[in-house]
Write a structure and sequence with these properties.
The chain is of the alpha/beta class and 943 residues long. The chain is built from 31 helices and 24 strands. It has five domains: 73 residues, no CATH class; 89 residues, TPP helical domain (Helix Hairpins), CATH 1.10.287.1150; 334 residues, Thiamin diphosphate (ThDP)-binding fold, Pyr/PP domains (Rossmann fold, 3-Layer(aba) Sandwich), CATH 3.40.50; 246 residues, Rossmann fold (3-Layer(aba) Sandwich); 131 residues, Multifunctional 2-oxoglutarate metabolism enzyme, C-terminal domain (Rossmann fold). The relative contact order is 0.07. E1 component of the 2-oxoglutarate dehydrogenase (OGDH) complex which catalyzes the decarboxylation of 2-oxoglutarate, the first step in the conversion of 2-oxoglutarate to succinyl-CoA and CO(2).
Length: 943
């Protein structure tokens, strides 16, 4: 036996001592015939890392034998040169080896994957012996098997072909030859070929499979009888999903996994909640009967609901979490990845040994939704990887309305997109439960050993239409004629077990009756469910529950402590050579700390992060240019000009500080924002930030705002403190990148669901960011941040403003103005304030005050009323904005301002100063921009 494997065995306590000889013989037997050893030993041996060699040839001692083996394998691997192919037999030997490789690469195209038998696929010529110049006369000729893992070095061509067909052309279609890593390819070949694609399972394993199928079918039949015609997006036709997920959980648990997070769309979700997660059937029945969930103002349909529970596994207790999911198909996948990464970070689990993501997809969505590709792209990126995801495609063979796969995709399989990251793909016929079990075990073992994504394509069918109220035969006549005749997976498997003597008719009926009785009694039907779960396995949200909305919170940090923290923030290691302009930034920050210069935006922002870390709060920030900042204001990550190494001061403030993660993301908005939403919903103690490179980049992630960020709390009770920074400002740079589309976020505002802020000073951004975490309230924050304002000479603060101030929802007039003379009130938000201020000062207008509304939602009516109260002689109230009239804050916020104005003085009318309504966010000509800007400023003072 090769030393690496044997050493692992000898180091294992329960395999040492007197058992060594027995275990060695057992392993030798396993290598030649895995089905010949007990199932529990086979499972153990399968988890041992494979070094990629031909493990059927196992010398047990001698270094000499080890080198003999290496030499033998090397000779086998030698390419056949023209000189060496000297006989007809040798020529045929080469062709046999080519045939073996062809089956590994294309055997899946001849596999019987469709339970309905409707697929019309021609066997590729590559899989016929004639394609290689071989004939039936060669079938009884003995050839070397090369690296074919069938337990013998030589076999007849008939045996070789039969072994290949059994392995690759039955009910499993394995795609792994596109993987460039030879070790991974050999791993799959060995695992598949050694058991001919069909391991032998014990009667206990078979009985458990049947019980899981009985549960899957039983729930759907029960619901169909009890609530006929009601939408449930049932699992009929895909019942093998339940034993598949059950095996993922149990086998992952045997590796020591502590948490699994699952994301899935509608199909089979209710079945999974009851039969896998252990949701009480009585609670599900209440949802079918329309019972309202207390505490949720809107709630959601039952097949969008999440759930969590703890179950027992061979490796101990394991926490399961089902992610809440709207009807937007694949968008939950990156949310799951973010949640998993957060859990891994909390457990100090960088390799993904303790937390596993599982994403369950529909075939049409998997092929059609771009976020699938974006999520795959995350899989090995350091800021987003989770140690490999197990993907399950519930392949119904038809989309929502698609009548032909030719209209659903351009690829052969719905799963071909996974090849972009070289993920292995295991297609399996859903009506062969033991094949389903086998590929599931392969997937878990592969993920645990190689820490990469793997795809299980569960080829099944949809016994009913898209939902239970849908009649599918109108668009799928032939398919549904076959489905009407198709016996269920459970029936087929039960008959097979009865025929093999593994079950009796009485055993089968008892399982059906037992499950039905449990449902009638409203009992839990998951035997592994932990009734008193270990609370250490999940996050405690209790400190963040039940808090009413508050605008203010104490965000002060004592001045001496602030200076102490700032000193660490501006410290650069000796010998670390920074770029000249960056060096100037850090020199200026040292002067700001000493009080010799006013605080600018970039420094106030990084001081907010530093003080939060000091308070014990982790900080995570991602976006396409967050290290430097799109407008070169942040410089949180320094790059050595000498050796290109990176130094991040915020990671090096003090010993034992909380995590500070800063990642420049790949060029994605939708998946990355969804990832950060998932991360934030799992780490309530952290400040989690996504920054758009420009504010309008968030357009590509609108579904995340619409269906998670703005409504997750009212639909699902899901709290989230995610912060989104969107650069916004009109600088004459054209329609793109001027507007962050403020109006879209304000349209989403209701019931204190999110916060929308437009800070205009460094102190404001400092206190806003600190408030987001220090205050126990957890609400998403949408912050419109500046561009040119980052270096505006008037947009400055002092260190004392940071130490003593707080976030102001409304900033009053800053100049000394006699209230009795004031007749005009201009309200505004954002950068336009400084243009208004400059114009007012230049014109000496002492009859006008300018008030900044820094928080547009929840709108601070009381604070605004308090600020304008001293001005008793107002005659004009104007809202001024840079955005066109149909955009910005005007339409969504004017009723708040009108209410305050009319309460202040009867008859005051709110007027508008800004750009005319426009289909485009901004004009494309600098001269036109300047004219428009001048006009809106003039209007603000002269309406």
């Amino acid at each position: 036996m090769q030393e690496s494997v044997m050493q692992r065995m000898w180091n294992s306590a329960h395999l040492s001592g007197g058992n060594a000889a027995y275990v060695e013989e057992l392993y030798e037997l396993y290598l030649h015939d895995p089905n010949a050893v007990p199932e529990e030993w086979r499972t153990y041996f399968q988890k041992l890392p494979n070094d990629g060699g031909n493990t059927t040839d196992v010398p047990h001692s001698p270094i000499r034998d080890h080198f003999v083996l290496l030499a033998k394998n090397q000779r086998r691997a030698q390419p056949a040169s023209a000189a060496s192919v000297s006989s007809e037999h040798e020529k045929k030997q080469v062709q046999v080896l080519r045939l073996i490789q062809a089956f590994r690469a294309r055997g899946h195209q001849a596999a019987k994957l469709d339970p309905l038998g409707l697929w019309q696929r021609q066997v590729p010529a590559d899989l016929t012996i004639q394609n290689y110049g071989l004939t039936d006369a060669d079938l009884d000729t003995t050839f070397q098997t090369g690296e074919l893992f069938i337990g013998k070095e030589a076999a007849t061509l008939r045996e070789i072909v039969q072994s290949l067909q059994d392995t690759y052309c039955r009910t499993i279609g394995a795609e792994f030859n596109h993987i460039t890593d030879s070790e991974q390819r050999k791993w799959f070949a060995q695992r598949l070929e050694s058991v001919r694609g069909r391991p032998t399972y014990s009667r206990d394993a078979q009985a458990h499979l049947l019980e899981r199928l009985t549960a899957a079918e039983g729930l759907e039949k029960y619901l169909g009888t009890k609530y006929p015609g009601t939408k449930r997006f049932g699992l009929e036709g895909g019942e093998s999903l339940i034993p598949m997920v059950d095996e993922i959980i149990q086998r992952s648990g045997s590796y020591g996994m502590k948490e699994i997070v699952i994301g899935m769309a509608h199909r089979g979700r209710l079945n999974m909640l009851v039969n896998t997660f252990g949701k009480n059937p009585r609670d599900l029945f209440d949802e079918f009967e329309g019972k309202k969930v207390e505490g949720l103002s809107s709630g959601d349909v039952k097949y969008h609901q999440g759930f969590s529970s703890n179950v027992t596994t061979p490796g101990g207790e394991l926490h399961l979490a089902m992610a809440f999911n709207p009807s937007h198909l694949e968008i939950v996948s990156p949310v799951v990845e973010g949640s998993v990464r957060a859990r891994q970070d909390r457990r100090l689990d960088p390799n993904g040994d303790k937390v596993l993501p599982v994403s369950i997809h529909g075939d049409a969505a998997f092929a059609g939704q771009g976020v699938v590709m974006e999520t795959f792209q995350m899989s090995q990126i350091r800021g987003f990887k989770t140690g490999g995801t197990i993907h399950i495609v519930i392949n119904n063979q038809v989309g929502f309305t698609t009548s032909n796969p030719l209209d659903a995709r351009s690829t052969e399989y719905a799963t071909d997109v996974a090849k972009m990251i070289e993920a292995p793909i295991l297609h399996v016929n859903g009506d062969d439960p033991e094949a389903v079990l086998f590929v599931t075990q392969l997937a878990v073992d592969y993920r645990m050993q190689f820490k990469r994504d793997v795809v299980l394509d569960l080829v099944c069918y949809r016994r009913r239409g898209h939902n239970e109220a849908d009649e599918p035969s109108g668009t799928q006549p032939l398919m549904y004629q076959q489905i009407a005749k198709q016996r269920t997976t459970r029936e087929l498997y039960a008959d097979a077990l009865i025929k093999a003597g593994a079950q009796t008719n009485e055993d089968v009926q008892a399982k059906i009756d037992e499950y039905r009785t449990a449902l009638d009694n409203g009992q839990h039907v998951v035997k592994s469910l932990v009734k008193e779960p270990n609370p250490d396995l999940f996050v405690d949200w209790t400190p963040y529950l039940g808090h009413a909305w508050t605008a203010r919170h104490d965000t002060r940090v004592p001045l001496d402590k602030l200076r102490e923290i700032a000193a660490g923030l501006t410290r650069i290691p000796e010998g670390f050579v920074v770029q000249r302009q960056v060096g100037k930034v850090y020199e200026d920050r040292q002067k700001m700390t000493a009080g010799a210069m006013p605080i600018n935006w970039g420094y106030a922002e990084t001081l907010a992060y530093a003080t939060l870390l000091h308070d014990g709060h982790p900080v995570r920030m991602t976006g396409q240019d967050v290290g430097r900042g799109t407008f070169s204001h942040r410089h949180a990550a320094l790059h050595s000009q000498k050796d290109a190494t990176t130094y991040i001061p915020l990671k090096n403030l003090f010993e034992g500080q909380p995590r500070f993660d800063l990642y420049d993301s790949f060029l994605s908005e939708e998946a990355v924002l969804a990832f950060e939403y998932g991360y934030a919903t799992t780490t309530p103690n952290a400040l989690v930030i996504w920054e758009a490179q420009f504010g309008d980049f968030a357009n590509g992630a609108q579904v995340v705002f619409d269906q998670f960020i703005s409504s997750g709390e009212t639909k699902w009770g899901r709290l989230c403190g995610l912060t989104v920074l969107l650069p916004h400002g009109y600088e004459g740079q054209g329609p793109e990148h001027s507007s962050a589309r403020l109006e879209r976020y304000l349209q989403l505002c209701a019931e204190h669901n999110i916060q929308v802020c437009v800070p205009t000073t460094p102190a404001q951004v400092y206190h806003m960011l600190r408030r987001q975490v220090v205050r126990p309230l957890r609400k998403p924050l949408i912050a419109l941040t500046p561009k040119s304002l980052l270096r505006h000479p008037l947009a400055i603060s002092t260190l004392e403003d940071l130490a003593e101030g707080s976030f102001q929802t409304v900033i009053p007039e800053v100049d000394a103005v006699d209230p009795a003379k004031v007749e005009r009130l201009i309200m505004c938000s954002g950068k336009v304030y400084y243009d208004l201020l400059t114009k007012r000062r230049n014109e000496g207008r002492d009859d006008t005050i300018i008030v900044r509304i820094e928080q547009l939602y929840p709108f601070p009516e009381e604070d605004l009323a308090e600020i304008i109260a001293p001005y008793k002689n107002l005659k004009k109230v104007i809202w001024c904005q840079e955005e066109p009239m149909n955009q910005g804050a005007w339409y969504c916020s004017q009723h708040h301002m009108r209410r305050v104005a009319s309460a202040h003085q009867k008859g005051l009318f709110l007027e508008y100063a800004g750009r005319e309504a426009s289909a485009s966010p901004a004009c494309g000509y600098p001269s036109m921009h300047a004219e428009q800007q001048e006009k809106l400023l003039h209007d603000a003072f002269n309406i």
